[in-house]
Specification:
Blueprint (H helix, E strand, L loop, with lengths): L1 E2 L3 H8 L5 E6 L5 H12 L3 E9 L3 E4 L2 E4 L3 E8 L9
Antiparallel strand pairs: 1-2, 2-6, 3-6, 4-5
Amino acid sequence: LRPLVTEKSFHQAETERFNAYAFEVSRLAGKEDIRRAVEELFEVRVVRVNTANRKGKPRRTKFRWGRTKAWKKAIVKLHPDDRISFY
């Protein structure tokens, strides 16, 4: 869905040792789907894909309680020769 641009993800992307990029992905997407999508969109070679399901947090607006949406995060490790430049 979109790349995650945070301090931690920026550090992982820029560091030679990690070469990993974080994305918010569809909750229905599997690791193979994510691998195929990143390889096609950015023309890079993916070494590994790690995923994590993030729970929505409770939030309050005036008198009502609600929740933020739950989402899925994917961390994609690339081949050492490949880079993605969207920062």
